[in-house]
Design a protein that fits this description.
It contains 19 helices and 25 strands. It has 556 residues and is an alpha/beta fold. A hairpin with a 2-residue loop joins β5 and β6.
Length: 556
């Protein structure tokens, strides 16, 4: 059996100019990065603003398990299937982070015969967007420490510096560091911290900004520290905005690549969904909606994280109204949620399926709360039995969900036609009545507890003393009207990764709360979730290599 990277490397790619021309983008509207990657120009984006919007389809999933779900694979395969049916479709995805690529999760280009390509470029440096975000983040950190060193005119309290440096790599030893050691000329000694680039507020700002003017306004609002009077100090106060914007100028432009079947894909931005808001850029999604009749986008990890943030943060901020949701599951993952060990997942086990399907049931219930029609798809494995598939199908249809099998990993777009037809039928016959979960007027505590109870199934929320103080301060500073961005383990509906299935009545713990004022949301850290992940004992990096001819191996 061929690996994902072997399939991708054997594919015959079209010149990206030809891919673009088929959806009405001329060569002059592209900024080329070789033959197979390009950025879309600001002028082109401006020129299509009067076009009607296409239909917006969100792809989300149950909570991830070691058994695999295939959300990106399904997104790509669905886009290819629309192409097979003669529909004008564009896929809008996130860019992968180097952290999971070299860590445990691998890349994020899809899989099998449902991939976006060039796969190696996408999973590694791509067009440099993440490097630009990292540089802008760390420029702000350098200007902050330099200001303190050069007389501290703003009266910044070094004990209340909240801006963190970042790196797009899993590196646990950088979570808590001391900077400024050495002589007086080396800066003030203080505790500092790193986050992974995809958790940086600048990543969120890039993904939520509508244009350069909006980007600069958001950058200026970033709170970097508090002064000795407890008042916020911003990036604008540090005169950092212009230089940061200059670093981000090209990164603001969406990237155009293609699938294995030459379906156009806009891949732009990449915040994690467990520690950030988990969606590709608003600019890419809105551009795609003006380019095509159907736009397939995805939100990271399970629907409790990615879909909730897509609806309550991205759609709220951008005025987007999704027309349908595709909810991805696998028989294997549902059995894993029912208590079956990974090595036994290929055996038919209806009893375990009946127990584990509670996880899918909760996600269906959650999505219904947003008023968007749902299509459930089972990502097919050869070990799935007819009895298992029939059980899941009846379960979904009994809950007013359309159902389809997806075979896109094995068959590409052809294997997604059944799913595409179900989505098209849903778009035609079921109206979306999208609404957000909570109103802006609720307090931050009420928003946290609404998400915890309504989406996670928690019986209550406990706050650390620090979180209590932080909530009070943020309300006093006028940030109480912002949505909340919950940072939580992706592996469970709860904040404890060991609680599989559908945990109920648990107490969710909130340990820290802080505002991303430029992004426009309040981050809530729950359980033991980290904003700088670590590498596993045997990182995926061990398997990655490049031969004498320059061919990369081991990426997945």
């Amino acid at each position: 059996m061929k690996t994902d990277i072997e399939i991708a490397q054997e594919a015959v790619l079209e010149n990206i100019v030809n891919v673009a021309e088929r959806i009405g983008i001329q060569a002059d509207d592209l900024e080329l990065y070789g033959k197979y990657k390009a950025k879309i120009s600001d002028e082109y984006i401006e020129s299509i603003q009067n076009n009607p919007d296409g239909k917006l389809i969100l792809v989300t999933a149950i909570n991830p398990t070691p058994a695999g779900e295939g959300k990106t694979t399904t997104s790509v395969g669905l886009g290819q299937a629309f192409g097979k049916l003669g529909k004008k479709a564009v896929i809008a995805l996130r860019e992968p982070s180097l952290g999971p690529c070299f860590g445990i999760k691998g890349g994020a280009a899809g899989g099998g015969y449902a991939q976006v390509v060039p796969m190696e470029d996408l999973n590694l440096h791509f067009t440099g967007d993440f490097h630009a975000i990292t540089s802008a983040n760390n420029l702000l950190a350098a200007l902050l420490d330099n200001h303190i060193q050069q007389g501290n005119e703003l009266g910044i309290d070094p004990r209340q510096v909240v801006w963190k440096r970042c790196l797009d790599m899993n590196d646990r030893v950088l979570r808590n560091v001391i900077v400024g050691l050495g002589s007086k000329a080396d800066g003030m000694v203080r505790e500092d911290h790193f986050v992974i680039t995809v958790a940086s507020e600048i990543m969120a700002i890039l993904c939520l900004a509508s244009d350069m003017k909006d980007l600069k306004e958001r950058l200026g609002k970033i709170i970097v520290a508090y002064n000795f009077q407890g008042e916020p100090v911003t990036a604008a106060d540090l005169k950092a905005v212009g230089a940061m914007a200059a670093l981000l100028k090209d990164a603001m432009k969406p990237n155009l690549i293609q699938t294995l079947e030459h379906t156009p894909a806009l891949v732009h931005g990449g915040p994690f969904a467990n520690i950030a808001h988990g969606c590709n850029s608003i600019r890419a999604t809105k551009t795609a909606l003006k380019m095509a009749d159907y736009v397939i986008t995805e939100a990271g990890f399970g629907a409790d994280l990615g879909a909730e943030k897509f609806f309550d943060i991205k759609c709220r901020k951008a005025g987007l109204k999704p027309d349908a949701v595709v909810l991805v599951a696998t028989v294997r993952a549902l059995k894993y949620n029912g208590g079956v060990k990974k090595e036994n997942l290929s055996e038919e086990n209806i009893k375990a399926l009946q127990a584990g399907i509670a996880n899918l049931e909760k996600h269906i219930e959650n999505l219904h709360k947003y008023g968007v029609p749902i299509v459930v798809t089972l990502n097919s494995f050869v070990s799935d039995t007819k009895a298992e598939i029939d059980f899941v199908q009846k379960f979904c249809e009994d809950r007013n969900c359309e159902f389809a099998i997806s075979e896109v990993w094995e068959k590409g777009g052809e294997g997604g036609i059944a799913l595409a037809k179900k989505v098209l039928d849903t778009l035609e016959h079921k109206e979306s009545h999208f609404k957000v979960l909570y109103e802006d007027s609720l307090s931050l505590r009420e928003k946290i507890e609404t998400v915890a109870s309504e989406i996670y199934g928690a019986g209550g929320v406990s706050y650390s003393p620090a979180a209590e103080k932080q909530l009070q301060k943020l309300e006093e500073l006028g940030f109480g009207n912002l949505p909340v961005c919950m940072a939580k383990t992706q592996y469970s509906l709860s904040d404890n990764p060991a609680f599989l299935g559908r945990p109920v009545g648990f107490k969710m713990s909130v340990r820290e709360v802080y505002v991303s004022a430029g992004a426009g949301f309040v981050v809530v850290l729950t359980g033991a979730v980290m904003t700088m992940p670590g590498l596993p004992k045997a990182p995926a990096a061990y398997q990655i290599d490049v031969n004498d001819e320059g061919v990369i191996t081991g990426l997945f």
